[in-house]
Design goal:
Elements (H helix, E strand, L loop, with lengths): L11 H11 L10 H21 L6 E9 L11 E4 L2 E4 L13 E11 L9 E2 L1 E2 L17 E5 L2 E4 L6 E9 L5 E2 L5 E2 L8 H15 L3 H28 L11 E2 L2 E2 L4
Parallel strand pairs: 6-7
Antiparallel strand pairs: 1-9, 2-3, 2-8, 4-5, 4-9, 7-8, 10-11, 12-13
Helix pairs in contact: 1-3, 2-3, 3-4
């Protein structure tokens, strides 16, 4: 049996124990950690995608901060690219800053001038990914827009260094097998243990010829995901909604208060 880890979220040991029990192998003689790890990872990704589509935000991360350096030249044909390997384009190429390794896609980005004391308010940037992409204009003192293209964050750039803060969808944690043969890692969602276990078991049973039981576990997975989705809907219905203030005076291209 795998060692059980403690923590706020379900550990790899708990997931593996559930999978082995569902596959009628509680001692793990056939369904070892090495045999189950890929199926458990696939099941965790499946459940995370389903819950994300239904609005659950467990896999949303916030407060990623990076500084985009000033452009080398004012040229409307050039852009700045923040990638998983560093920053490039119309700036001096560097390995830092770089996109976080668990980034799936950005959701919202704010900007402010870098290096000011005290730091000014953050201003929301406009996502132009599905609006024809970045404009073609000379760079100014703000980034203003961003585009998510070919797994990189694209900007027109600015004539001064700009701090950005990003909110983004994150990939679920990956389970691995350690040198002792134990499954290690933590589920990224507190409530998804059962759904992940049933889905992983359905994958594994198909490998062993247990098609009928695998189909039953697939149905159970759907039911569990729907229960989790219902809790998301109820939470959203209970949340207060307040409209943002309209307008606001501006100074040097920057709003005088956060939007």
């Amino acid at each position: 049996m795998p060692n059980l880890q403690t923590g706020g979220y379900s550990s790899a040991g708990q997931v593996l124990s559930l999978v082995q029990d569902l596959c009628n192998d509680p001692q793990g003689q056939l369904y070892s950690a090495a045999f189950c790890v890929q199926a458990i990872n696939s099941a965790a990704r499946f459940v995370a995608r389903e819950l994300k589509l239904r609005g659950k935000t467990t896999l949303v991360e916030d407060e990623f901060l990076a500084t985009i350096p000033a452009v080398l030249a004012q040229d409307p044909t050039q852009q700045v690219y923040l990638t998983f390997n560093g920053i490039a384009g119309n700036v001096t190429a560097e390995q830092a800053p770089a996109l976080p390794a668990n980034l799936v896609e950005p959701l919202k980005i704010w900007e402010r001038p870098s290096g000011l004391v005290p730091p000014p308010d953050l201003v929301p940037m406009r996502d132009v990914t599905d609006q024809g992409g970045l404009p073609k204009r000379l760079q100014g003192t703000r980034l203003r827009e961003w585009e998510w293209r070919t797994d990189q964050l694209c900007f027109l750039g600015a004539t001064v260094a700009i701090d950005i803060i990003m909110r983004f969808n994150a990939a679920p944690n990956v389970f691995t097998v350690d040198q002792n043969g134990n499954l290690t890692g933590m589920l990224a969602d507190l409530d998804s243990l059962d759904a992940t276990g049933f889905k992983a078991s359905s994958y594994l049973l198909k490998k062993r010829g247990g098609i009928t039981l695998a189909q039953e576990y697939d149905k159970e997975t759907v039911a569990l995901v729907e229960q989790l989705a219902t809790s998301v809907t109820r939470t959203e219905q209970a949340s207060p909604f307040r409209m943002k203030p309209f307008g606001g005076r501006r100074k040097n291209g920057w709003p005088t208060r956060p939007i």
